[in-house]
Structure formats: C-alpha cells, structure tokens
Amino acid sequence: MSFKEVVAVKGFWKSVIILGFAFMLIYNAIDLLFSFGFNFDEFIAEKLEGKMLIRFLIANIIGGFIYGFIVTFLQFRGKLKREKAKQ
C-alpha cells in the first residue's frame, strides 16, 4: 500500500478537511473551558487580538491539517488493506 494510492482514494482530502476542522473546534472549546472557564472575552483578548490572531490561525490550520491527515491516512490505509485481503 503506497502513500500515493492512499491519498488518491476518492474522499480522502474531503475527510482530511472535515476532520481537521472538527479537531480545531473541539480543541479550542476544550482550551476555552480549561484555560479560561468559558470566559469568551478573556479568550478573545488573549488569542485573537493583534499579532496573536495570525499565530492563532496558522497554528490551528496547521494543527488541524496534521491531525486530520494522520487520522484519515490511517483510516483509509486500513480500509484499503482490508479490501485487498478480501480479494
């Protein structure tokens, strides 16, 4: 099972994006809860003002992509291996 075979499967990149976006939402909700006690004003002041906004966005996009890619890759690779084993 090659890398190119796995990433070429239909729906792979859509799954990466959806899973990455879900990760970003859940991660930030947990961060908001544990670090700020659901104090939205404090969260926004620390994470989204000034230069921190760019850092926040880049970190979330990269983190979400990495998480989504790894999980999706392993899921699709396992699925392809099971399908080949059945043949």
Plain-language structure description:
This protein is mainly α and 87 residues long. It has one domain. The chain is built from four helices and no strands. The radius of gyration is 17 Å and the shape is elongated.
Summarize the structure.
The chain is mainly alpha-helical.
Structural class comes to: mainly alpha
Q: Figure out the total of helices.
A: 4
Terminal Cα span? 14 Å
How would the global form be characterised? elongated
Q: Give the uncertain stretches in residue-range form.
A: none
List keywords for this structure.
single chain; 87 residues; mainly alpha; 85% helix; 0% strand
What is the secondary structure topology, with strand pairs?
Layout: H1 3-7, H2 12-36, H3 40-47, H4 51-86
